């Protein structure tokens, strides 16, 4: 099957009474219930004019409503577009209006997104924790919409070449860009997970990543292919390390997938060691480099787990992987490698500075991919597409922008980036997007954002600023950043300067800034 | 109560050193919102919770460190003082 909705429906038919999705308090929906509610909401979407090829937005916390919404979109042949419900309203508005969603499902707290909407407003459904509340003018209640008649069979669309979802990532020019993923591309990843991890209907998947983060694709769609249960972790639990540890133990998660930062967070602050739990059967991590000493410590606590490092940008989902087999020697200092390509849907090429393919131990270059794993381009960003794609002998290759080096046996290690993108707690950040936001401050005349690693090897963002007139306080700058950027992009610190250093060609000299910051420490 | 002002002072010093390097102490008041204003993100909050737990040998439950109750130095110090006694 090459369609996420058909895959889910086949499972719902095979395992109607098994739990499909859980909330932390133990409440759940069976496959039959989830399928029925999604079909009804799809019926509402259809009546609201959603047709195959459209987009449906969701700006919601982790909840049953969120999973019903995304499944309903898929049933209609529409792509789902999740945005961070905790991000500033302007960001959600930019995303949802950019891809012109036909329906937008919002938590009541996020209604600010609708203000100053630049184009015609979509149909808006409101999710409210207060079930007695009335809908605001121009909106309708989600709780009523799922009482609609189910979508008719003739209105289901199962074209695998249509988009299944669009995930927005940080854009260097200051506005996020939408990564388009078709059903065929999504399923190439889901099917690889089936072959590699062999999930069963007995498995319990954690769902730690928010739905606008690509780790969620594995959590949801791989679990649903096999009749396993998805255990949703809302922010309130995910941000409290002790609750997160209690959650993992209480739900006896068998397949855990998160960033290394999240795992560290549980070990450092959540009392993971004291919990007396030998861990999931599979511990999968992705999104950033895992410092080896932290990984070693975890492998000594979760003694039951097999460990996999999964690598890949949102544009390809996971495209290389490496199994880390404990024990990790005490003298090891290098982080785990990103490993080898996943299979025939992930064909890799490493190219040197002249574009020539290189191979063999020690060879280093930019990592490119072709195959079904590669995304369908950025939403209405032809210039970005031209920048990252190259046609070579009839194949479309994608430039990840990552630099890697071959070790022995074709295993790859991550070396760094060619551009100014960094990863912080697993999130992609274009430093240029932070600069664009800070330039909006009236008293900032110049700004350069740089990333450094602290003693714990965590990425820290430093905003080097030049002010006009009196310098704003650092608290004011934090607040301004918080009001204009998602939380993961707020700089850790601010460094005031009289001017920014320039290179001989007149560009900001980021290397000099990094050097100055290192000297100060 | 001098106890409370001592607690406020230590929390303030910790926040300035850890999360606001370069900020002058005068800009961080006892009633400055910390989390609702973005001064502390979720990881910084966890570190602060861990710091006060270790410093004062107390345990804070998740519901006590919510964004509304754990947002200002004065509220945090009052919570710590009530736990100590």
Examine the secondary-structure arrangement and name the CATH architecture of the largest domain in chain A. Answer: 3-Layer(aba) Sandwich
How much strand content do the residues of chain B show?
under 5%
Mean pLDDT of chain B: 92
- The rounded Rg of chain B comes to 12 Å
Number of helices of chain B: 3
Which regions of chain B are unreliable across 5 or more consecutive residues at pLDDT < 50? none
Number of helices of chain A: 15
The stretches of 5 or more residues of chain A where confidence is low (pLDDT under 50) are none
Radius of gyration of chain A, in angstroms, nearest whole number = 23 Å
Strands of the widest sheet of chain A, in order across it, are 4-3-5-6-7
The CATH class of the largest domain in chain A is Alpha Beta
Largest sheet of chain A: 5 strands, parallel
| Total domain count of chain B | 1
Query: How many DSSP-defined strands of chain A?
Result: 26
Any overview of this molecule?
The complex is a heterodimer of chains A (521) and B (85). Chain A is an alpha/beta fold and 521 residues long. Chain A folds into three domains: 4-180, 3-Layer(aba) Sandwich (Rossmann fold); 240-418, Rossmann fold; 425-520, ANL, C-terminal domain (GMP Synthetase, Chain A, domain 3). Helices cover 29% and strands 26% of the residues of chain A. Chain A has 15 helices and 26 strands. In chain A, strands 4-3-5-6-7 form a five-stranded parallel beta sheet, sandwiched between helices. A five-stranded mixed beta sheet of chain A has the order 12-13-14-15-16, with helices on both faces. By secondary structure, chain B is mainly α. Chain B has one domain (3-84): ACP-like (Non-ribosomal Peptide Synthetase Peptidyl Carrier Protein, Chain A, Orthogonal Bundle), CATH 1.10.1200. In chain B, 53% of the residues lie in helices and 0% in strands. In chain B, α1 (2-19) crosses α2 (42-56). Chain B is globular, with a radius of gyration of 12 Å.
